[in-house]
Amino acid sequence: MTDTPIRLLLVDDHTVVRQGLKMVLSLESGLEIVGEAGNGQEALQAIPQLEPQVILMDLLMPVMDGVTAIRTIKQAYPDIEVVALTSVLEDRLVIDAVEAGAAGYLLKETGPEELIEAIFAAARGEVRLHPKAQKRLIREVRTPEMRESLTERETDTLRLVAKGLSNKEIAKDLEVSEVTVKTHVSSILSKLNLSSRTQAALFALKEGLVGLD
Question: How many Å is the Cα radius of gyration of the chain?
Fold first, then answer.
């Protein structure tokens, strides 16, 4: 992690919620709240000017909902990580958010420390899912048809992705370069016909490659 604060955008249609988040998150020196938006469309319009690295995104909003916003953002700005932060734990909503490209799914009951940790994790490219959301996703996620089998090293990499490790941490664990890890992750996503590390992590959990926390 560098000394430069993570640029964070808050997106929620409730002003009180945004104010509460700002009060909590502004106390963390490693975060810089660069702006806020009341719906997905406002967030999209603000991104070019604010250049956030991580977005905290509510899911149920007017004008443009969170799932649509996540999908659009990830297509236009694939390097921006989006963490879904919502009061709703509905199976379809959880699945849609992850399939849209959310790097994490947290409930608004999440404590400040866990929320801050999840933001830093997202900035590092790690996966963070609320335990309740994780269990529902594993139950509902469709196991993809593999285009070809994973190699032993790819399977090792997948296990570590599912444990929430970043590429740097995986590289250290497997004693390879970060470039090699990126190659393995790309190959895993291609072979499993998946679009994100979060989906790959859920596949590993469903297949029993790693256990639920």
Answer: 17
